[in-house]
Specification:
Blueprint: H1 25-35, H2 38-46, H3 53-63, E1 71-75, H4 81-88, E2 93-98, E3 109-112, H5 118-128, E4 132-137, H6 147-168, E5 169-180, H7 185-195, E6 196-202, E7 213-221
Parallel strand pairs: 1-2, 1-4, 2-3, 4-5
Antiparallel strand pairs: 5-7, 6-7
Helix pairs in contact: 6-7
Length: about 240
């Protein structure tokens, strides 16, 4: 299981920002958190584009998501940390999409666009040579600071990712999507349980303790027989 990096590298001491340039309180808090985050330091040391790489590493270690030679799609790929992990862990064909431009990560196929656009989905599937074994989403909307609004926004993204997966996954495939804990989460989990054999809620160690972020891991896609009641329980 992935734990906060340490041992092999230099010891990190808490750092505070200088005050040469005025910053908002929220900006200062974010920057100080970045400076003192061991996952940020370790991501730089290992060449990952983001600390989020460690979340996928742990999810894979716990759930066995990335099979050798698997076809995988990463929704909301920028800056590319999860794409790097997919390639590193032996996925056979990898495709990613984001509204932002991504620097190339060969041999992955990257698209700049909206994954809800049917033409984008077609491009991703064609690039893989067929339907995916694994679809990932670490997407999150820009936050407003209003907890209820932010929760509804991310759950809309979760719903969109689930709808995409229902058309792009092959039978037996898996979907992993970021969500925030809250009342609307239950409705999405119920939907996933109708379409997948098992649904788990996982909070990786690399997710910040103060964050309500969790990941919904839906395993064993039922394909066309989505109306069948699930036999397993999530949690």
């Amino acid at each position: 299981m992935v734990r906060p990096p340490g041992g092999g590298g230099p010891r990190l001491t808490a750092q505070r920002l200088g005050s040469s340039k005025p910053r908002s309180e929220s900006s200062r808090a974010w920057l100080e958190r970045q400076l003192n985050d061991p996952f940020v330091a370790q991501a730089k040391a290992r060449g990952y584009r983001s600390r989020a790489a460690f979340k996928l590493i742990e999810l894979d270690e716990r759930l066995g998501l990335v099979r050798k030679g698997a076809r995988a799609i990463d929704l909301g790929s920028a800056p590319g940390g999860w794409i790097q992990v997919l390639i590193e862990r032996g996925a056979g064909a990898v495709a990613g999409v984001d509204l932002l431009r991504l620097d190339p990560l060969p041999p992955a196929y990257l698209v700049q666009g909206d994954f809800t656009d049917p033409s984008v989905g077609t491009k991703l599937t064609e690039a893989l040579g067929g339907k995916a074994d694994l679809i990932l989403s670490d997407m999150a909307p820009n936050t407003t600071g209003h907890r209820a609004t932010d929760h509804l926004r991310i759950m809309a993204l979760v719903e969109a990712a689930a709808e995409f997966a229902e058309g792009a996954l092959q039978s037996g495939g898996a979907l992993v999507v970021k969500a925030f804990q809250g009342g609307e989460t239950a409705a999405v989990i119920a939907r996933l349980k109708r379409r997948f054999r098992e649904v788990r809620i996982v909070k990786p160690n690399a997710s910040r303790a103060e964050s309500s972020e969790v990941y919904l891991a839906a395993l064993g896609f039922r394909g066309g027989d989505g109306g069948v009641e699930p036999s397993g329980e999530g949690g």
